[in-house]
Specification:
Blueprint lengths: L4 H8 L7 H7 L11 E4 L9 H16 L3 E4 L13 H11 L6 E5 L2 E3 L11 H13 L3 E4 L3 H13 L19 H9 L5 E4 L8 E6 L3 E6 L6 E3 L7 H11 L4 E5 L6 H11 L5 E5 L2 E4 L6 E3 L10 H7 L3 H12 L3 H7 L20 E2 L2 H13 L3 H15 L1 H9 L1 H8 L18 H4 L20 H14 L6 H12 L4 E2 L2 H6 L6 E2 H13 L7 H8 L1 H14 L1
Parallel strand pairs: 1-2, 2-3, 10-11, 12-14, 15-16
Antiparallel strand pairs: 3-4, 5-6, 6-9, 7-8, 12-13
Bound molecules: glutamic acid.
């Protein structure tokens, strides 16, 4: 170009008086221990937190934690089309529900913490424009007045020809060589313009970079004169990424693999701005097996309710379960670590980006359920009680009222077969609790006396009548069980299951059948946690009434 770039910079950015050097001073290198990594999660405020977002944020937070670094949350709200009102709260609440705690960044609507802010892109216009002004001064950026129509003509022509690269570059980049006078004239006429990067990339050159997850990657150099600032002065993602990650002193850009193809652009921008190129790690997509055709595909916001983090909150999966499950997907050595550290907080796991697999990770609700059952089984009764109450308060008010009417009763109920060396593993999410313990509440108990085939109605009646004779609600488990055993022989059953298996013809059934009949009468279920504890909690009146009701019906 044959004009004074400083003059152009002043023409385009008369209001910008600060310099990049001042920004460098304002946002200095962080003083962190050797090897500490600074990571960020940078969502757009779409009001929707995808499970892939939680997955990514977990990687950011764990990477920072494992290296004594810093993780922060930046809101990328430069794309007004994608934004919804208060989309930030949905993201922040989503993270809070799962215990994702960033060290810095946006903490709420118009709230943030940390010295490298503002952490919301729409509040950083001056920073972007300061960097842009310097690029113009260095001859590395220029205004482009091409209209949408002109750009689509370029696109059509490129599509018609056999160009391998599409975009604004080389002979297509008409505004690259405008004279100062032409630019000045256009601006006087009030023509809208974008600011473009003046790329010096060459079509036959390649760039190399090391992706921490994927290893060495080689790609053609960027030759496109990418838009840096849109006509309203708002940056594109590419330019904002370079400015923000530089001045927030991010060391490791961890983001979705869909951004790999943009890396050449980003490296070119970092270099043009005089910024150190950060390290990149592109994470794999979260996939699932399609229920209909069995193929592996991306979790879709449209088709899969479990793509939304809010789904897990609504279903009442404890935050610990989802995090635990995501960790098994993130690092294959997590399960070994867990075995060696059964009581540790999951966030203490020494996560290693290098151990992440580059191929898509499969999100499987069935596995999540299993993991969750394990996690819930080792929680203490108070924790479980509080979680259920909190969940029900938000999602099932009627159950909340039942559940919290007698807190001591409900607390003891959830403690059946819990806080023991071999806890029962059957609750995965709080929304299951009402159905699981329905028989504990008169409001939900439905009698069901569907006898096993080998027990006749007469036998069942005899068992129940006999049981009422010996039943004493004060009996502890061993006495309770010995009474049931003692009932066996007079009724034609055997207390010895092995004996029954050896010689089934000799008996009507075994001790298990006797307790099944009692269980069915008291709970309407063939399977429950410890029956003696259930009966103690229900109390004599309820137990006797339920048994008598069944006897009457037989
Ligand atoms: N705002 C970008 C997105 O939502 C973030 C990409 C990045 O992490 O750099 O896709």
């Amino acid at each position: 170009m044959n004009y004074d770039c400083n003059k152009l910079a002043d023409l385009l950015f008369p209001h910008i008086t600060g310099t990049v050097a001042e920004l460098e001073e304002k946002y200095p290198e962080r003083s962190l221990p050797e090897g500490a990594r600074v990571t960020r999660f940078a969502p757009s405020p779409t009001g929707y937190l995808h499970i892939g977002g939680l997955f990514g944020a977990l990687v950011d937070v764990l990477t920072a934690k494992a290296t004594k670094g810093v993780s922060y949350l930046r809101i990328e709200d430069t794309d007004k089309k994608r934004e919804i009102d208060d989309g930030v709260s949905a993201i922040i609440n989503g993270f809070a529900s799962f215990g994702i705690d960033f060290d810095e960044g946006v903490t709420g609507f118009n709230e943030e913490k940390g010295a490298y802010g503002p952490y919301t892109q729409s509040q950083r216009a001056e920073i972007y424009q300061t960097v842009a002004k310097e690029l113009v001064q260095k001859g590395l950026a220029y205004p482009c007045f091409c209209t949408a129509e002109e750009l689509s003509v370029i696109r059509e022509e490129q599509e018609k020809g056999d160009a391998l690269i599409w975009g604004y570059f080389g002979k297509w980049a008409k505004c690259r060589d405008l004279s100062f006078e032409e630019i000045e004239e256009n601006i006087k006429l009030g023509k809208p313009y974008v600011l473009r990067f003046r790329s010096d990339g060459q079509e036959d050159k390649r760039i190399f970079f090391d992706d921490i997850i994927r290893g060495k990657i080689e790609m053609p150099e960027n030759i496109i004169d990418e838009v840096l600032l849109k006509s309203d002065g708002i940056p594109t993602y590419h330019f904002a990424h370079a400015c923000d990650d530089h001045f927030m002193r991010t060391t490791h850009i961890i983001r979705g693999e869909e951004w790999i193809s943009s890396v050449p652009k980003h490296i070119a921008l970092f270099k043009a701005c005089g910024f150190k190129v950060p390290k990149y790690a592109h994470t794999p997509q979260v996939m699932k097996i399609d229920e209909e055709d069995g193929t592996k595909r991306k979790l879709s916001k449209r088709k899969d309710p479990e793509a939304a983090v809010s789904y897990f909150v609504e279903q009442g999966f404890p935050k610990e379960s989802l995090i635990e499950y995501l960790l098994t997907l993130l690092n294959s050595n997590f399960e070994d670590w867990r075995r060696a550290n059964p009581k540790e907080d999951a966030f203490a796991f020494p996560f290693n980006l290098k151990k992440m697999s580059p191929s898509g990770c499969l999100f499987d609700l069935v596995k999540l359920n299993d993991v969750s059952k394990n996690v819930v089984s080792v929680m203490d009764a108070d924790t479980v009680y509080n979680y259920i109450a909190l969940w029900a308060k938000n999602y099932d008010e009627e159950f909340y009222n039942e559940f919290t009417k007698d807190p001591e009763f409900s607390r003891n109920m959830v403690n059946i077969d819990r806080e023991s060396p071999k806890p029962r593993k059957d609750i995965a999410k709080w929304s299951e609790v009402k159905e699981y313990f329905a028989y504990m509440f008169d409001a939900y108990f439905t009698p069901d006396f569907d006898l096993p085939e080998n027990i006749s109605k007469e036998d069942a009646k005899a068992i129940l009548e006999k049981y009422l004779e010996v039943y004493d609600e004060a009996d502890e488990k061993d006495v309770w069980f010995s009474k049931i055993k003692d009932m066996c022989e007079p009724l034609g059953f055997t207390p010895n299951v092995k004996e029954f298996k050896k010689n089934p013809e000799a008996f009507k059934g075994h001790v298990g059948d006797i307790s099944t009949v009692i269980r069915l009468a008291v709970t309407g279920r063939k399977n429950t946690p410890d029956l003696c504890s259930i009966m103690k909690l229900l109390g004599k009146d309820k137990v006797t009434a339920r048994i008598n009701e069944i006897i009457k019906s037989l």
